[in-house]
């Protein structure tokens, strides 16, 4: 105890200081390197002109886009669709920030009077026309607009008011955008003097004699270039070498493909299941329990069947089984269950009163019955949809859907009625979603259809086969942890190295691999020359090396060296040829100096840079109409695309086509530029904006 007391007396202050330093060190370490670090704590996924997009807001935007896409694709979302939703959300944010700034800068507004005119004026907005087109006539019906507004005050649920508000906002935004585009388009002008000059330039053609000294006449091996010359060429032609940020990786893929033993095991299992398939009474349950292709309780028109061995399958007798057959890496049996005659397309419309949001069943039933009574009494179906239907995705088109037997429509009862009912028939039906009033509008192309059950299994690699592929990949990654070792082993063992170039920060798919977001993220976190650990993707394991990091701006020389070298060598060859030619007194002198023949070209025009006997040579086409030379003089040497040319115009002839009216030329040019603006204006504004995309750090 005395020893402990001495320590307390002598070192108490020192111990307190050490403890405090340790606590501070721990806190600083957490702040700068931990998950909640100050340096990594930013939740900003991007900025546009200083306006930040927070992660939570971006996530909500993505959810909204996914919900819109889900309504358009009842079958659900896949990885590609989710990626598309992310891009939609990001691009809408860009559009909002960039265009709002433009509108405010120029004072572009939409007044209340303009909004009213967009709905009730002589030229209603296209969105209004789309929403209020009479399904019976296919024409815009102003009476439906008035009826919708008059019903707002009577709608106690508030749904109609909210729908009208959203519609007004959408119309106002499109009108604001249109105003802005019109302002820009008013600045497009093609001067009369320029049209007159163009008309004169196109008024004649030239017949030309020439000497061409091809660049290929000088061997590449005789031309030496330095990196300094190549870099100077890039700097002098910056527009040709602008690149966006990207990465380049080289990789090896160790495929875990099924072995012969794996295939034999899968086939044995399928033969056993086929025996049960042949005798079972519950075919739907059997298929859903045992098959990777779930049971489709419906009919497929014979004409639209897309299965392998189609003729053998669709012509089976009822109860017969065809197979086994292969469909890619899947083995399958097909059993014919039934056949009948039915349409291949049906068009319906419906009103849905949903019970999924807590509405009592009895109230929902009374509401749908009231809607049915109103429709039978002559009420407009589209108006009933707008006022009472809970299916938001179909309100814009009067509740209409066009279905095929294979459409993945979520309500089986409605889909069955679309094909089993008759044209013009209406029916109220109860479903798990609520009550529907469905009307069959049209049925087309009646023909034979079949109901088939498919027992299908993918032939997968066994654990042993998969483990072997992983072991090979892991061994390679462990022994080759540098780019030098990576390349050396590949060359020594004759392995099949693959290349993935121009990988962008938000790419999800890499050609040859498929969904590979993990690899993309690694490429943006790694250093050049780093070798990855083993990535696991579908049916394969991948080991990659990062071979190039491209920043936004000019392409590095190593990425474009072959292209730049060819251009610089071409320029040096041109200089040699021009120095040899000097200023030739005649074509014969040029031909003698270069040992090249005198050739001829007809129909050369100023407006067309392609010359039949030369190829794409715009400088030659322009030189043919140089007034300083005319028909009296031989041109100076012209540095062309394929060689150096010396030309002499033999004669000018009037153009075969008559001169175009100046006003027509002006109008055509201006219209062409205005049409381009519709597609390119926003891209130009985006390039001129300061956009910072950090999404790759989060996704």
From TrEMBL:
PROSITE patterns (UniProt xref): PPIC_PPIASE_2
Membrane topology designation: Single-pass type II membrane protein
Principal location: membrane
Domain PpiC stretches: 343-442
UniProt keyword terms in alphabetical order: Cell inner membrane, Cell membrane, Chaperone, Isomerase, Membrane, Rotamase, Transmembrane, Transmembrane helix
InterPro entries documented for this protein: PPIase_dom_sf, PPIase_PpiC, PpiD_chaperone, Trigger_fact/SurA_dom_sf
Subcellular location: Cell inner membrane
Chain ranges passing through the membrane: 12-33
Family note: Belongs to the PpiD chaperone family.
Name assigned to this protein: Periplasmic chaperone PpiD
């Amino acid at each position: 105890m005395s020893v402990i007391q001495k320590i307390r007396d002598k070192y108490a202050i020192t111990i307190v200081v050490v403890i405090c330093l340790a606590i501070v060190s721990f806190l600083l370490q957490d702040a700068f390197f931990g998950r909640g670090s100050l340096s990594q704590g930013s939740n900003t996924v991007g900025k546009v002109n200083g306006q930040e997009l927070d992660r939570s807001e971006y996530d909500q935007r993505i959810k909204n886009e996914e919900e819109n896409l889900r309504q358009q694709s009842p079958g659900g979302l896949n990885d590609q669709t989710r990626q598309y939703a992310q891009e939609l959300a990001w691009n809408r944010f860009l559009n909002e920030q960039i265009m709002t700034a433009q509108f405010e800068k120029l004072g572009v507004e939409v007044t209340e009077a303009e909004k009213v005119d967009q709905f009730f004026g002589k030229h209603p907005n296209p969105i209004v026309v789309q929403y209020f087109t009479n399904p019976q006539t296919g024409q815009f019906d102003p009476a439906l607009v008035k009826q919708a507004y008059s019903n707002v005050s009577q709608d106690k649920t508030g749904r109609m008011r909210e729908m009208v508000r959203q519609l007004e906002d959408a119309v106002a935004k499109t009108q604001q955008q249109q105003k802005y585009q019109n302002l820009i388009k008013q600045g497009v002008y093609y001067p009369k003097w320029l049209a007159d000059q163009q008309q004169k330039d196109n008024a004649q053609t030239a017949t030309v004699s020439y000497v061409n000294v091809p660049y290929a006449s000088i061997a590449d091996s005789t031309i030496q270039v330095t990196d300094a010359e190549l870099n100077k060429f890039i700097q002098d032609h910056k527009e040709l070498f602008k690149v966006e940020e990207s990465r380049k990786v080289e990789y090896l893929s160790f495929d875990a493909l099924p072995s012969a033993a794996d295939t034999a095991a899968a086939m044995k299992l399928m033969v056993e299941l086929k025996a049960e398939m042949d005798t079972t009474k519950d075919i739907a349950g059997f298929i859903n329990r045992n098959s990777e292709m779930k049971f489709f309780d419906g009919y497929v028109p014979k004409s639209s069947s897309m299965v392998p061995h189609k003729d053998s399958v669709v012509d089976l007798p009822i109860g017969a089984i065809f197979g086994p057959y292969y469909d890619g890496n899947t083995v399958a049996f097909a059993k014919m269950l039934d056949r009948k005659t039915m349409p291949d397309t049906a068009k319906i419309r419906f009103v849905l009163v949903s019970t999924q949001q807590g509405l009592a069943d009895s109230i929902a039933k009374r509401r749908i019955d009231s809607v049915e009574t109103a429709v039978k009494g002559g009420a407009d179906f589209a108006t009933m949809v707008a006022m009472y239907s809970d299916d938001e995705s179909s309100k814009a088109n009067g509740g209409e859907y066009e279905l095929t037997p294979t459409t993945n429509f979520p309500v089986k009862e409605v889909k069955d009625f679309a094909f089993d009912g008759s044209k013009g028939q209406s029916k109220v039906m109860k479903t798990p979603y609520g009550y529907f009033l469905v009307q069959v509008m049209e049925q087309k192309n009646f023909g034979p259809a079949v109901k088939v059950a498919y027992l299908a299994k993918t032939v997968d690699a066994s654990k042993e086969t998969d483990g072997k592929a992983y072991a090979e990949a892991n061994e390679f990654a462990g022994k080759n942890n540098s780019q030098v070792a990576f390349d050396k082993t590949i060359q020594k063992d004759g392995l099949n190295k693959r290349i993935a170039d121009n990988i962008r920060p938000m790419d999800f798919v890499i050609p040859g691999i498929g969904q590979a977001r993990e690899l993309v993220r690694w490429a943006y976190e790694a250093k050049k020359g780093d070798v990855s650990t083993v990535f696991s993707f579908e049916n394969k394991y991948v080991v990659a090396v990062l071979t190039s990091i491209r920043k936004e701006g000019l392409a590095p020389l190593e990425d474009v060296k072959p292209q730049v070298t060819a251009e610089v060598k071409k320029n040096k060859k041109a200089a040699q040829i021009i120095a040899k030619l000097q200023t030739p007194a005649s074509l014969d002198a040029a031909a003698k100096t270069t040992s090249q023949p005198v050739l001829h070209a007809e129909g050369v025009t100023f407006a067309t840079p392609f010359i039949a006997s030369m190829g794409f040579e715009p400088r030659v086409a322009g030189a043919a109409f140089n007034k300083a030379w005319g028909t009296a003089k031989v041109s100076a040497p012209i540095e062309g695309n394929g060689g150096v040319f010396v030309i002499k115009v033999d004669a000018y002839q009037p153009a075969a086509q008559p001169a175009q009216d100046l006003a027509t030329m002006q109008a055509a040019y201006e219209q062409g530029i205005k049409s381009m603006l519709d597609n390119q204006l926003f891209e130009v504004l985006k390039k001129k904006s300061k956009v910072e995309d950090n999404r790759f750090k989060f996704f």
